[in-house]
Design a protein that fits this description.
- The protein is mainly alpha-helical.
- Strands 1-6 form a two-stranded antiparallel sheet. A two-stranded antiparallel ribbon has the order 2-3. A two-stranded antiparallel sheet has the order 4-5.
- The radius of gyration is 20 Å and the shape is globular.
- It is built from 13 helices and six strands.
- The structure holds protoporphyrin IX containing FE.
- Protoporphyrin IX containing FE binds next to α3, α9 and β2.
Length: about 350
């Protein structure tokens, strides 16, 4: 058989259509979003390591580099070559999640690259207020090789270094801020083992704008291990503040984008969806992918608090606004005394 450009295109598009249909619950019960929730335990957003799904989408995709045409992007290499990539310092805390997902993807015959982005989108849809992320299927079944080390930004990196790395992957400073909405459902596990499970904001089960508010509160509480290059003083006992989040919230290149998301839930969701559509397809030509977004469940839970607020025990006077062109919005103060933030549940995938 002779492959012309046209017949190759038809073959590729037939394959991706099959994949997309295969991802639909009706066609393949083993690959339904619900089975995923049960099978690898992401029923409760922000609990245990359940947000690691969202983190994994980033760690796989961000290996893309404009300066290296052979770099993979969202190609599943973090899973296919987990013997190499899971040993990188930036990925060490994802190693167990990678293996759990890898087994599941292999059992269901789903290519790693698609599966990582699928799991991240399903996981995010399960958070209160969460986004319904776009999901495209049909990435190559196999990555060309392991991603090089040192491409995932780190919490001790300067803003210069983080923005340069993000720009090399195709993201503006504003888009970097948009992507960091994911830290609203995040906790730390490996940065300070004495505070395992410490959330990055007071509402780790909600995909809300509290993260953008609370990172701007004056830091007064040292982490249990004391401040280190990865950690800053936090505003509330039990909450963990990453040095990189602290700096990006205050940098002149990003401070206004940061502040612009405070109490703007629908804007934040919209921008996150757009930035994730880009992140999740890095290294692929979207023309050859199939839009399977309809397999991602509609987020079920709404936010407990419809608007952002200053956590109890703190006041508007504790806000450190670094955006010179707009004033920080006036937020209600949550009533009551200062309440320490509890860690998210122990690491568990089931
Ligand atoms: C751009 C700079 C970024 C830096 C420096 C950074 C760094 C980190 C670090 C150090 C942790 C804690 C890991 C641990 O101790 O378990 C973390 C958690 C997390 N990050 Fe990021 N991150 C960045 C961007 C992103 C992006 C773009 C996403 C997703 C699109 C993301 C999603 C997450 C999630 C969901 C968690 C929580 C994981 C869990 O709870 O197990 N991060 N990040």
């Amino acid at each position: 058989m002779v492959f012309t450009a046209k017949s190759t295109l038809i073959l590729v598009s037939t394959l991706v259509t099959v994949l997309c249909v295969g991802a639909r619950p009706s066609a393949n019960p083993g690959f339904s979003p619900l089975d995923l929730l049960r099978g690898i335990g992401i029923r409760n957003c922000g609990n245990g390591r359940r947000s690691a799904h969202a983190s994994l989408t980033f760690h796989d995709a961000i290996s893309f580099s404009k300066s290296n045409p052979l770099s993979g992007g969202a190609d599943g290499s973090i899973m296919q070559f987990s013997d190499v990539e899971a040993k990188y310092v930036a990925n060490e805390d994802l190693a167990d999640m990678i293996e759990v997902q890898k087994r599941f993807a292999m059992n269901h015959g789903v290519p790693f690259a698609d599966f990582i982005q699928f799991a991240g989108a399903v996981g995010a849809s399960n958070c209160a207020g969460g986004p319904r992320l776009p999901f495209f299927a049909g990435r190559p079944k196999s990555a060309r090789g392991p991603a090089p080390d040192h491409l995932v930004p780190g919490p001790a990196d300067s803003v210069d270094k983080i923005l340069a790395r993000m720009a090399d992957a195709g993201f503006s400073p504003e888009e970097t801020v948009d992507l960091l909405a994911s830290h609203s459902i995040a906790a730390q596990h490996g940065l300070d083992r004495t505070m395992n499970g410490a959330p990055l904001d007071s509402t780790p089960s909600a995909f809300d704008t509290q993260f953008y508010v609370e990172t701007l509160l004056k830091g007064t509480v040292p982490p249990k291990n004391g401040t280190t290059p990865v950690s800053a003083l936090s505003p509330i006992p039990g909450e963990f503040r990453m040095q990189s989040d602290f700096l990006i919230a205050r940098d002149p290149r990003t401070a206004c984008a940061w502040q612009s998301l405070v109490d703007k839930q629908s804007v934040m969701i919209d921008r996150f969806q757009k930035a994730m559509a880009k992140l999740s397809t890095l290294g692929s030509n979207r023309f050859f992918l199939t839009d399977c977004s309809d397999v991602i469940p509609q987020p079920r839970n709404s936010l407990r608090s419809p608007s952002a607020y200053i956590p109890s025990g703190r006041s508007m006077a504790d806000i450190e606004s670094f955006c010179k062109s707009s004033t920080f919005p006036k937020l209600p103060v949550h009533p009551g005394p200062l309440v320490p933030i509890l860690p998210v549940g122990p690491p568990s995938f089931h």
